[in-house]
Amino acid sequence: MPRNACKIFQEQKRLTWKFRKKSLSLLKIKQMTFDNSKTIIGSRIMLFFVTVLALAWLAVAYVAKLIKFPLFGIEDGIWTLVVVGIWVIVAFLPMILNYQFLYYSDEGEKLVFRYFNAGLVGGKKNTVEIDKRTFTGYNTESKLFGLNKSIILFQQVGQRIAKYPPIHITALKPDQKAMLLESLAMHAPKV
Q1: Dihedral angle computed from the Cα positions of residues 118, 120, 126 and 132, in that order, rounded to the nearest 10 degrees
Q2: For the chain, where are the E strands, in sequence order?
Q3: Are 40 and 122 in contact (CB under 8 A)?
Q4: Is 9 within a domain?
């Protein structure tokens, strides 16, 4: 009998450990906080690097005249157009795709979003705080052939449903997008 009791105890201990492990992983999913500051900083560093490169090209090619043209069979005007074209793409692509810095937290009683445009010209800083009990769901939108993605949040306000302006999630990494959408789906009421 004691051997059997020992086996039962060990089995209960193993099942308890499995349950704790699963509940701990659920707790990690339920409460999360993240931001995409590394992506935005990387974008700004890239813009700085390309700007320095473009200015150095202009200084070396036209002011100091250290490069003999044609270079690799291509004239100076074409090289300048290529360098300026690269700068324009790096500078304006975040604006076209609506890159936004995004901070998200679902800890506590509220879903908290802090965001602002992260393009060449910074935008107004916005904060959306939605009580989890009044959160009614979200929609996702894609524009520009799926390159520009955003979410629209909904909240119960009295007898009506309030719709928030789109929050652009294009600058989020794929795993951050998945975590955000999973968290929102978890907090949305089940239909």
Answers
A1: -20
A2: 33-35, 100-105, 110-117, 126-131, 135-143, 148-157, 160-163, 167-168
A3: no
A4: no
The residue assigned the tokens 């604006």 is: 95
Tell me the average pLDDT across 40-48.
93
For 95-109, the pLDDT digits (tens) are 888 999 999 999 999
Asked if 177 contacts 169 with a C-beta cutoff of 8 angstroms, the reply is yes
Q: Is residue 23 domain-resident?
A: no
Report the predicted TM-score, pTM, of the whole model to 2 decimal places: 0.73
Mean pLDDT of 69-98: 89
Is there a contact between 107 and 33 (Cβ–Cβ < 8 Å)? yes
Its domain, for residue 184, covers 33-191
User: At 3, phi and psi to the nearest 5?
Assistant: -65, -45
